[in-house]
Amino acid sequence: MYFCYVLKNLLEHINATTDLRQLSARELPQLAKELRQFIIEIVATKEGHLGASLGVVELTIALHYVFNTPDDLLIWDVGHQAYGHKILTGRKSEFHTNRQHKGLSGFPKRDESAYDAFGTGHSSTSISAALGMAIASQLKGENRQHIAVIGDASIASGMAFEGLNHAGVTTANLLVVLNDNAIGIDPSVGALKQYLTNVKKGTQKQDNIFEALNFEYSGPIDGHDMVALLTELERLKTIDGPKFLHIITTKGKGLKQAETDQVKYHAPGKFDATTGDLISKNNESLPPKYQDVFGLTLVELAKANKKIVGITPAMPTGSSLKYMMDEIPERAFDVGIAEQHAVTMAAGMATQGLIPFCNIYSTFLQRAYDQIIHDVALQNLPVIFCIDRAGLVGEDGATHHGVFDLAYLRCIPNLIIVAPRNEMELRNIMYTAQKGLQHPIAIRYPRGRGVTPDWKSAFEAIKIGTGVQLEHGDDLAVLSLGAISNTVSKAIDGLNCAHYDMRFVKPLDEPLLHTIFKTYSTLITIEDGVISGGFGSAILEFAATHNYKNDVKVKGVPDSFIEHGSVNTLYETLELDHFHLKQFISDLIQKKGTP
């Protein structure tokens, strides 16, 4: 019988969930096989998040088969696992454009499809959003189902617990599906992870935590058993109030390498769709990634300074804190998806004389804004924030670009903000920060590789609040901040143009700025963050405070959310690449010289 199903090529005929529901239940395992292979073949050449979507193929089919989506509302927490969902909901023919400029988003996105009930990208939002929708349906007298699919790493986050806690005292028609595969991007950590492991093994002796929160609990069941999924979802569909389904899945299911190396195959880059083997890149002669410079430098510093500790919220591989976790595990902490906790834990450590390096992606640091202000800066505690993925990050798009940090941090008293332009400066400011600094400091650096292959130079302290002049010139002056300074250097090659890397946006190098404003009538500020409230704004505020009348042009990310695409494409689109900057500066010089 399976032979005839293969000949049908079921996926080819499914362009909406109404098509899916025309199939018989016994045909669904064959559809799962085809859907899994479709994802593998596309992601192998186009890249993206592989393992999570492969792990929920059966669940994805079952949910859309049992529930009347999009009228019933389905939310995928984070969205790494939503590729199958997109393919089954009318986007199969476009899926090859996934995460590419002007193509499909890599995450659920409300304006992309009616099936994407809520935009996601950051973790642990699904339960709160689905509960809000369920309560809204109650108030409007609508009979709808509301489903939140969340992973075992995301459910350990504080926001997920807040949603569970509230949902448990409502009568909202909410189903929370826990996709338990014991891993997020890196392996899950914490006491809840151990609790779920005990539940799977049948050794858990305590009361069921979800039943204690007033949920109708079901499971754990095999998330790859289509019959079990359909049966239980049909049953839960008839039960009112908050419900909880615990399923066990394997991340990367269906591709041997992805099952074996779940961290690497979370987003593996290009690979052979037939064998599963990664297509290697020759990176031996390339400069290192900034994250690796951070990770290796931290180990070097921590070996010499026993007070140093490292903290990351669930990103030891992505941040490269894994190097310290491997070599000095007792002083390196993965706290799970808990940015607020990470920041305040670092503050607590700082009160006791430790030197915490708290490494968080720029876009995720937003989640701990109150803790930065209230728990760190207000108490003037010398926490060292290492802010990875600053600037535009590429294919992950608007939910992940690190373009707001300069603006949202600059207004906070006591906080030093610095952006090293290369790997050596990153090393040196990390070295400087752990030598008795009396204030918190935020060190921001971009995703990807730097510019200096031979980066392991001897440490040199950097004087806080000082900029440097990189190029001399007479026509005008460019003021840049951070890694985009390297693009500026390329752009002004051959132009009679001065270039200053200000390095610090707080405190500004005011003596240097007075010299610049008195020397040049025209200034250009260039940054890889938002224009509103960022580095350029700081320079304009300085000019206004000191009554300078110079012509100041501000270049940066405009006041809009930037979509996904390669980093190079996005910078070209925003005219922040070296070609457009060269043209912009040349035009200004020409106008300046015109009588």
Question: What features would you describe in this structure?
Answer:
The protein has 25 helices and 17 strands. The protein is of the alpha/beta class. The protein folds into 3 domains: 265 residues, Thiamin diphosphate (ThDP)-binding fold, Pyr/PP domains (Rossmann fold, 3-Layer(aba) Sandwich), CATH 3.40.50.970; 157 residues, Thiamin diphosphate (ThDP)-binding fold, Pyr/PP domains (Rossmann fold, 3-Layer(aba) Sandwich), CATH 3.40.50.970; 126 residues, Rossmann fold. Strands 7-6-8-9-11-10-15 form a 7-stranded mixed β-sheet, with helices on both faces. The protein has a 5-stranded parallel β-sheet with strand order 1-2-3-5-4, with helices on both faces. It has a 5-stranded mixed β-sheet with strand order 12-14-13-16-17, with helices on both faces. It is globular and about 75 Å long.
Overview features:
alpha/beta, disordered N terminus, five-stranded parallel beta sheet, 39% helix, seven-stranded mixed beta sheet, Rossmann fold, 17 strands, 595 residues
Radius of gyration: 26 Å
- What is the general shape? globular
- Taking pLDDT < 50 over at least 5 consecutive residues as the criterion, the unreliable ranges are 1-7
Query: Order of strands in the sheet with the most strands?
Result: 7-6-8-9-11-10-15
**What is the assigned CATH homologous superfamily of the largest domain?**
Thiamin diphosphate (ThDP)-binding fold, Pyr/PP domains
Strand residue percentage: 15-25%
CATH class of the largest domain: Alpha Beta
Largest sheet: 7 strands, mixed
CATH architectural grouping of the largest domain: 3-Layer(aba) Sandwich
Tally of extended strands?
17
Q: What class, by secondary structure content? A: alpha/beta
Counted by DSSP, the helix tally is 25
